[in-house]
């Protein structure tokens, strides 16, 4: 099992940027890292993925062009850069790891992002 710890959430205004970090540890085979979010009263929504050993990235249309996922292998850290934030981006953001870009088996505890209008 891989352990994931997110940080970087907070309260920002619409149009601002925020970068989330996720430190991964543990010994487990993981092909992809990803970020998902869950807004109050809604289901969990996938927002980005990146290959563990490649630079290939994946995004849904809802965030493409605004969100960028990256990783720093030396720091065992995956990042989510979020630009031009909107109030509808308000959610708890989770880091995840798994065997394909949109299916995950390990999750972090989440970090709250609140975007005010």
Structure commentary:
Strand 5 (44-51) and strand 6 form a beta hairpin. The mean pLDDT is 94. Strands 2, 4, 5, 6, 9, 10 and 11 form a 7-stranded mixed β-sheet that branches. This protein has strands at residues 3-7, 10-13, 18-25, 32-38, 44-51, 57-58, 67-72, 77-82, 91-98, 106-107, 111-116. It is mainly β and 117 residues long. Helices cover 0% and strands 53% of the residues.
Number of strands: 11
Identify the quaternary structure here: single chain
The span between the termini is 39 Å
**Major sheet, described briefly?**
7 strands, mixed
SSE succession: EEEEEEEEEEE
Task: Write down the Rg.
Answer: 13 Å
Class from helix and strand fractions: mainly beta
Beta-strand content: over 45%
User: What gross morphology would you assign?
Assistant: globular
Uncertain parts? none
Residue share in helices? under 10%
Calculate the mean pLDDT score and round it: 94
Helix count? 0
In short:
With 117 residues, the protein is mainly beta. Helix content is 0%, strand content 53%.
Write the layout of secondary structure elements.
Blueprint: E1 3-7, E2 10-13, E3 18-25, E4 32-38, E5 44-51, E6 57-58, E7 67-72, E8 77-82, E9 91-98, E10 106-107, E11 111-116
Parallel strand pairs: 2-11
Antiparallel strand pairs: 1-3, 3-8, 4-5, 4-9, 5-6, 7-8, 9-10, 9-11
What attributes does this structure have?
seven-stranded mixed sheet, 53% strand, 117 residues, mainly beta
């Amino acid at each position: 099992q891989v352990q994931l710890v997110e940080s970087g959430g907070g309260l920002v205004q619409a149009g601002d940027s925020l970068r989330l970090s996720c430190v991964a540890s543990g010994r487990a085979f993981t092909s992809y890292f990803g970020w998902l979010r869950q807004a109050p009263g809604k289901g969990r929504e996938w927002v980005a993925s990146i290959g563990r050993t490649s630079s290939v990235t994946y995004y849904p249309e809802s965030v493409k062009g605004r969100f960028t996922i990256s990783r720093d292998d030396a720091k065992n850290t995956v990042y989510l850069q979020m630009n031009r934030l909107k109030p509808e981006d308000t959610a708890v953001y989770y880091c995840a790891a798994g065997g394909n870009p949109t299916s995950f088996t390990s999750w972090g505890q989440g970090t709250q992002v609140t975007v005010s209008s």
